Amino acid sequence: MYSWLMKPLNEYNRMREMNRLPHAILLCAPEGIGSAALAAEFARSFLCLRGAGEDCNCHSCSMIRNSGHPDLTVIDRGKAQSIGVDAMRTGINTLVGTPTNGHGRVMLINQANLMTVQASNALLKTLEEPAPNTLIILTTDNIRSILPTIISRSMRVQVTLPAISEFSDFLRSRTSSDRDFIPELYVSGMSPLKVLDWVENGYDEHLRSCLELFVSVMRGQGEIRKLAAELEALYKEDPVMLYGLMYSLISDVMAYQNGILPENLKVLKDREALDSLAAIHPDSLSEAARKVIMLKGAGVGPTGIKNSLITGLQLLNWLELLRGY
């Protein structure tokens, strides 16, 4: 288990040992820090025949790892945009009856914030009258999209972000690199697993080269058209990189305007580039940040690049305006 998840895991294990587990757990965690692994461990521990740790090899734990457990139902959106009522009703039906090993049943709902209203209402009825010896686990990175009545009938487990150095140490150990991965972590929204995926695919090098080219352009030395093309390529590799980079850059300029020293900024530390960008009106920067957030929510997807306002010729024009050409 990842080090930053050990605190909520230990709290869960203490409740299990004291026979004080609730009938429903709402696991709230930022995207990309391993909440799915933590939820799966909650489920394994609940069904474990020995009440042992992660390395247990009892029949129940072996089934979970190898072929799936008949008393464990996992619900997610799959290839759909949401979790529908039919999938929810099917999952709820698995909680009824006698468990195969007499040890309980678990329903795990990944990304519960993607449940439709109908699916949420179906789940709510089950939460109001839970079947005995069952555990429902919901995961979410956006609790605001969960019905308040579902929240009130679940025990909330909040996973908090550790110091960035812990993520950095994790990435160093996994990649055998002496890089600090600080820019990548900020761009990813503090998602070490996302950064690890970028490193494994070589995307992190492209991200850093785009940042260097951006600095060069803002210093009046690089080619804007080349930067526009590289940022489009970055988007095609992973949209999160483009939106995360642009938001981090805008945030750094706003912080610099407020007196934050370059060495304390997230990704943009070149003073000459910052001085160039600091001439932009703060209201314009705030609007740019708002648009990036909007585009990230609406444009991530296979067709998002066609609809994005920050790609192609529009991206080129935007960069030219930033540079004052």
Keywords:
5 strands; Rossmann fold; five-stranded parallel sheet; alpha/beta
Précis, in short:
With 325 residues, this protein is of the alpha/beta class.
| Shape label | elongated
The helicity comes to 40-55%
The H-and-E topology, N to C, reads as: HEHHEHEHEHEHHHHHHHHHH
**Overall mean pLDDT score?**
87
Q: So how many helices?
A: 16
Protein architecture, described:
- This protein is of the alpha/beta class and 325 residues long.
- Helix content is 55%, strand content 8%.
- The chain has 16 helices and five strands.
- Helix 7 (164-175) packs parallel to helix 9 and helix 10 packs antiparallel against helix 11 (224-237).
- The longest helix has 19 residues, at 239-257.
- The radius of gyration is 23 Å and the shape is elongated.
How are the elements arranged and paired?
Layout: H1 6-17, E1 24-28, H2 35-47, H3 59-66, E2 72-75, H4 85-93, E3 105-109, H5 117-128, E4 134-140, H6 148-152, E5 155-158, H7 164-175, H8 182-188, H9 192-201, H10 203-218, H11 224-237, H12 239-257, H13 271-277, H14 282-299, H15 304-307, H16 312-323
Parallel strand pairs: 1-4, 1-5, 2-3, 3-4
